[in-house]
Amino acid sequence: MSVLQQGFLKKWNRDGFVMGPEIITTISPSTNKPVLTRNGLSDSDVALLPATSTQAFNSFRLIPLEERRSIVSRALKLISEKQDVLARELTEQMGRPIAYAAVEIQTAVKRGEHLLKISGDALKDTAGEPEQGFKRYIRKAPIGPVLILFAWNVGGFTPKFSNECAKIMFFHSIPISSLSTP
Q1: How many domains is the chain partitioned into structurally?
Q2: How many angstroms separate the CA atoms of 107 and 13, rounded?
Q3: Rounded to an integer, what distance in angstroms lies between the CA atom of residue 160 and that of residue 62?
Q4: How far is CA 106 from CA 70, 95, 99, 111, in A?
Q5: Domain range holding 100?
Q6: Going residue by residue through the chain (182 aa), what tens digit of pLDDT does each one get?
Q7: 20 to 30 Å CA-CA from 157: which of 62, 88, 90, 169?
Q8: Residues whose CB falls within 8 Å of the CB of residue 148, separated by 6 or more in sequence, listed in order
């Protein structure tokens, strides 16, 4: 059985090909052995995602920006504290040489810290042209859930923090980095 077949078990129905429920197996590229096997989403789980993410978004949008920034700051601190564990996971799951894996985690944290630092200015209202009797501005406000599907070789950290203060996101796990990607 190929890695792809191990990663996604397929089923057929009368309408044709359907994904799910899938079994996600992460295969180490250095040992070619399974690292982790877990259940993916069933068709009914996938059908619930839009409603579930919208519900999460509706509560999320009420959280003030400073509180969201604080949550991201704590998450970045936890990632830094678990750098060694995460580096080993990158090596085991993606074949990243251990000598470079810790630097990859540090770089992801630095990117997150930079985005956190500029988020206040980036997300503040933009003034429009002044006119007597009117206050014109563009408000940057969360507008809804976002689905992100990214390439197999993109680590699970940076995309999460790229929009940390603006959106609710859900991610599609891929077999090669299933521990570092929700």
Answers
A1: 1
A2: 45
A3: 19
A4: 19, 18, 12, 9
A5: 48-177
A6: 333 333 333 444 444 444 446 777 878 888 888 888 888 777 788 888 888 888 888 888 888 989 989 999 999 999 999 999 999 988 888 888 889 889 989 998 999 999 999 998 998 999 999 999 999 999 988 888 877 665 554 444 444 444 444 444 444 445 555 555 44
A7: 62
A8: 159, 169, 170, 171, 172
- pTM equals 0.66
- Do the domain assignments include residue 153? yes
In a domain, 140, yes or no: yes
What CATH number is attached to the domain comprising 149?
3.40.605.10
The answer to the question of residue 12 being in a domain is no
